[in-house]
Amino acid sequence: MQKKVLIRCDASKDIGLGHITRCLVLANHFRDEGYKVFFAIKDYGIAKEKLIEQKFDILLANEKEFDYFNWIKNIVEQKKINLFIGDIRDGFPIDLITYMKNKNILTIAIDEPSEYAKECALCFYPPHANIDESLYKGKVYKGLEYVILRPEFYKEFEKKKNNIPNILVMMGGTDTFNLTLPIIKQIDKNDKKFEISVILSDKHKDINQLNKFVETSKHQIKVYNEVKDMSSFLNKIDFAISLFGSVAYEYLIKNIPSIYIQHEKEISTTHNYFINNNYAIVNDMENINIDKLFILFFQLRFKCKIFELIKEVNNGN
User: How does strand 57-60 pair with strand 195-199?
Assistant: First the structure.
């Protein structure tokens, strides 16, 4: 009998694309292994667009009469779910995890600070996660090998040798805080010789101003509205400036030293792992230190072990 997987995640302009991107990696892996995969999401356009594009079944929440427990419970019962994956930070009810465990459903949390993760059978976290493992009832795994990247990132690659350093500026898939243009203007003041690659949607409110600025900049700037193959694209990048997020691990595996912009809504301790290992530095908007960025260097490779662990535990159920 075909096993069924339920994934609970969302994507929106405010949430960003990181959660759904890594969940799609999991979903494709399970589909390739013969599982039927369902996504339970709220009615956000970006999320639906991504899932429709990859032909996954979508189960939308009823926002007008939203009842979290019964929404998921009904899905579990109607679709006969065997495995649940949570990558959501919106108050997912702990009682739902208890309910699913009582039905012998394998429950998994991905990089979750939420309370429900403490009830899950398996929890996977990046190495910098600040959690108290003694509070978790299931197994907790921490490390780079429990970070989820798209399969192409784990392939062998050759970096392009640039005569002039190429700095990527990317403030997330949606640039919710409108940081791209101010950062470009800030680093353009630096007299060092470098080129700038920018990824910004052509629908972003600052795109026209950015295109005008490119014409007068003292550095060569190339603007990309969309990148189909990020893994290959990053092979030509020497350094990066971004908000901290899932892209940090893409930079790591591509050996790209980075500056992470300290945004007011972020917690600085999140970055400590990267700073302490000289993978990155953290700056605020007014003090972007290109000179310090240029002296960072590292070589690193890692592989994801999540799939084999889930398979091992799931086969034992």
Answer: unpaired
Q: Closest Cα partner for 75 from 113, 114, 40, 120?
A: 40
Number of H helices, E strands in the chain: 11, 13
Segment 90-105 mean pLDDT? 96
For residues 43 and 178, give the distance between their C-alpha atoms in angstroms, rounded to a whole number: 24
- The model's pLDDT over 220-256, given as tens digits with 9 standing for 90+, comes to 999 999 999 999 999 999 999 999 888 999 999 999 9
pTM of this prediction?
Answer: 0.85
pLDDT single digits (tens) 16-39: 778 898 999 999 999 999 999 999
CA pair distance 52, 234, nearest whole angstrom: 26
Residue 195 half-sphere exposure toward CB, CA atoms < 13 A: 13
Phi-psi map region of 172: left, alpha, beta (phi>0 left; psi -120 to 50 alpha): left
Q: Give the Cα separation of 222 and 271 in Å (integer).
A: 28
- Domains belonging to the chain, first-starting first, are 4-147+304-316 (3.40.50.11190), 153-293 (3.40.50.2000)
CA 195 to chain centre: 26
